[in-house]
Amino acid sequence: MRLAGVFILAFVASAVAGLLVYAAASLLPDWDDAAGRGLGEVFRAVLTLTYVILSMILFGIAVWRRDRERHLKRALYVLLLVPFLIVVLGVADNGIHNIDWLRETVGMVQMFTPLWTVALVQWLILHIYFSRQAILAKAAST
Fold it and tell me: What's the predicted TM-score (pTM) here?
């Protein structure tokens, strides 16, 4: 029952933290027209909330593996690298010519920071919980 509570805490805390960082990143300058800006904001909000669910699934799978800490860390690395894959696929689709690098860098920061925050908050909560469990188990065995 405690583990379920920790997962619920990680879910809610990461969603709140991700949306707060999303709101903060939205304050960065945006050069799109009003319609494009609105659609971009909605896409990033949905992406952030989808990332909360994806992170819970990956961390949930990692928790049930034998070497829990290693698999949690590996899931974190995967979740931190996924936004870069989005950028690589975007460059492959659009090409590298005539890119406004300042505009695209701001867009990447606006997209990456909420996703990284979601993954880091969930990992941190799970890591602290399982580290304490390991310390308590070690203390009980001695």
Answer: 0.84
